[in-house]
Amino acid sequence: MQGEIRMKNYKLLTPGPLTTTSTVKQEMLFDHCTWDDDYKKITLKIRKQLLQLAHVSQDDYTVVLMQGSGTFGVESVITSVVGDDEKLLIIANGAYGDRMRDICEHAHVAYEFISFAENESPDAKKVIQILGEDSSITHVAMVHSETTSGILNNIESVAKVVKEHQKVFIVDAMSSFGGVDIEVGKLGIDFLISSANKCIQGVPGFSFIIANKQLLIESQGKARSLSLDLYDQWKTMEKDGKWRFTSPTHVVLAFSKALEELLAEGGIAARSKRYYNNNRLLIQKMAEMGMASYVDIEYQGPIITTFYYPENKQFAFPDMYRYIKKRGYAIYPGKLTTAETFRIGNIGEIYEEDILNLCDIIRDFLAEV
Ligand SMILES: *Cc1c(COP(=O)(O)O)cnc(C)c1O
């Protein structure tokens, strides 16, 4: 039976859901009761650990867990903290920045939008200019690791400008939190959003928000949606760890285990190092095979890499995808609007040996086409 399961299995080289450990998966074999004290304690423990990973204290910050995928978390923040008489500046250089605009359109949140090339980190000088021109802007939002391309945006330079102008700073750190160290307090990030199934290496089912406590309290009553009301969700959870509506119990148990395993690995520093090693090795090996990466190495994050199709080959991505999948790995199609590309992620239970295996498989595939 075990053998059969393994036969069907492949490792995910995708930006999440990702390959988790068998010990994380095993946690989900228990059907936990939600009002039980043991369960509520797990929620409280998770929230505390996330504050520590973000380098913030519980006097200034708090954590809200929100049912749903990562987008539910982003939507919850935007529609709960930007009031009817306020305005959000969205800084975008990829699909996830664009999605924030979509959220504003749906919920009728007032916004300003600036976009940069998908392989270009947003320029803080441009942000200064816009904040200077439009004093009605109250909040600024951007993506840290733009998973569309794999670029790691320079949030530090933008954070400085946002704080100088005393605006509220919202960061979608979905695919970076846990895999890249982020000094949430020092940077003055007021709302940081990430989810269970990315660098913490849990399974999909909820997102989490690391929130400036004072600003969260001040946002009471602004939410446009009941289920995604960030303040209400927090208020209930803050009491004793009970979730407001049905919580994804299995996902919470798996996440708790995943956090323990992150700490056992050596925390964010060690995990970041492993991801960076995977990533740089992959880029080097792919370059040796004539496949260039799209983002300049200076801005390339450790999470996922976009590669151009090889120039000198008759190339069909679905053929390569099937060839690689048969041999034990799943990769990702490209998401750029400007070039033909594909993506390879290296977050999750992925090690140097996997990268070397994958590159051997790709080499064999290229030799056959
Ligand atoms: C994964 C991701 C999201 C959320 O996507 P979901 O499909 O809703 O989980 C948002 N932003 C970024 C940068 C992401 O990588």
Automatic annotation (TrEMBL):
Keyword check for DNA-binding: no
Molecular function, one GO term:
2-aminoethylphosphonate-pyruvate transaminase activity
In-chain residues carrying the UniProt-annotated modification N6-(pyridoxal phosphate)lysine = 198
Binding, substrate? 343
Q: What is its EC number?
A: 2.6.1.37
Q: Which residues form the Aminotransferase class V domain?
A: 40-333
Quaternary structure per UniProt? Homodimer.
Q: What does this protein do?
A: Involved in phosphonate degradation.
The family classification in the record reads: Belongs to the class-V pyridoxal-phosphate-dependent aminotransferase family. PhnW subfamily.
Q: What is this protein called?
A: 2-aminoethylphosphonate--pyruvate transaminase
